[in-house]
Write a structure and sequence with these properties.
With 338 residues, the chain is an all-alpha fold. 64% of the residues lie in helices and 1% in strands. It has one domain. A hairpin with a 2-residue loop joins β1 and β2.
């Protein structure tokens, strides 16, 4: 077994940690308009999201590095995180009146479980909240992407804070009551994803570069995948199609997008930073374009204000990252295997 990468644990190692802590909740809650700026930055809200999303993404990243695994394990840990965040903390897997559900409180609901929502949000947290957050931080700090960021004591402290935040959400968050058996099954499902992440085989990194696809192709893949995901989750239920068909299409979307990306990088070979940026900007760019419309969306029962500024800030951040990457030369910023 290869030895873990050494780390001097200087003050410089704190920057990717801080960026991960801030980026995960900002992307998952703020950019998606799930929590608008007027609520997101409240002193009573922001620290809770920081520990739930940021600490969750940071722990997943550190576990993958310590286990010497790759991106499949990151996705599996992200799925486990999604089950904890939505199934246990928010209880949105079960609550038919959860504020973000819409028609999914009835459509795809069976035996007290919002099955279609559970599937969609597990995929969302796996890809967006966890994996894409780490992916972005690696682009910002490429030289630190293969290093361990947290000493054992710091890792334990983050784990305790994350666990305490989860318990606080469970006890003081959504008051919807779920049967104890459902909570147990949900916990076992989250643990199963962690076990799968641990046993997933580690691939040997390849030397050759990815197929010479334009960064625009990667951007289009991210943009179209994000748009199709939201359409399947929120608009297809309005068509009256069977719920199992929509669930099948969600699975198919994940498989097609993953297989396309896998083929373009030939099963995990190193790919150029601008190609990585294209994928990232496609996903974030879609939500940034959608953000201003949330300010004037008459269909939302909650008051959403400030999303236009969030969208503009996202584009500014992407532009700065592009400027930095386009002026650099070298190997891939995101490792194919960690």
């Amino acid at each position: 077994m290869n030895r873990l990468p050494k780390n001097g644990y200087g003050s410089w190692a704190g920057w990717p940690v801080i960026t991960t802590l801030l980026l995960a909740p900002s992307a998952a809650e703020l950019l998606t308009s799930s929590t608008p700026p007027t609520i997101f930055f409240l002193p009573s809200v922001f620290p809770l999201f920081l520990l739930l999303y940021g600490a969750g993404a940071l722990l997943a990243r550190e576990i993958v590095v310590r286990w010497q695994k790759g991106w499949p394990s990151m996705l599996l840990l992200g799925a486990g995180y999604g089950v904890i965040a939505e199934g246990l903390c928010a209880k949105s897997f079960f609550d038919p009146h959860w504020r973000a559900l819409g028609s999914l409180g009835v459509y795809g609901r069976w035996e007290g479980v919002n099955w279609l929502w559970a599937l969609g949000l597990t995929l969302f947290h796996s890809v967006f909240s966890i994996t894409l957050t780490v992916f972005c931080v690696y682009l910002i700090f490429p030289s630190l992407s293969k290093r361990v960021w947290l000493q054992r004591g710091a890792f334990s402290a983050i784990a305790v804070l994350f666990s305490s935040d989860v318990v606080l959400f469970i006890q003081k968050g959504n008051s919807y009551h779920i049967p104890r058996s459902y909570a147990c099954v949900t916990s076992v499902a989250a643990l199963a994803f962690v076990v799968l992440a641990y046993v997933w085989p580690r691939r040997t990194p390849r030397i050759k570069k990815a197929i010479p696809k334009s960064p625009l192709a990667f951007g289009a893949l991210g943009f179209l995948t994000s748009g199709t995901f939201l359409m399947l989750l929120y608009f297809f239920p309005l068509l009256g199609l069977p719920a199992y068909l929509t669930a099948f299409l969600l699975f198919a979307l994940a498989l097609i997008a993953g297989a396309t990306l896998w083929r373009w990088i030939e099963g995990g070979r190193e790919w150029e930073p601008l190609q990585q940026f294209g994928l990232l900007s496609g996903v974030y760019g879609f939500l940034a374009l959608l953000a201003p419309f949330q300010d004037f969306n008459p269909g939302r029962p909650d008051k959403v204000r400030g999303m236009t500024a969030v969208g503009l800030a996202t584009f500014v951040g992407l532009a700065l990252l592009y400027r930095r990457l386009s002026g650099e030369k070298g190997t891939s910023a995101v490792p194919s295997a960690m």
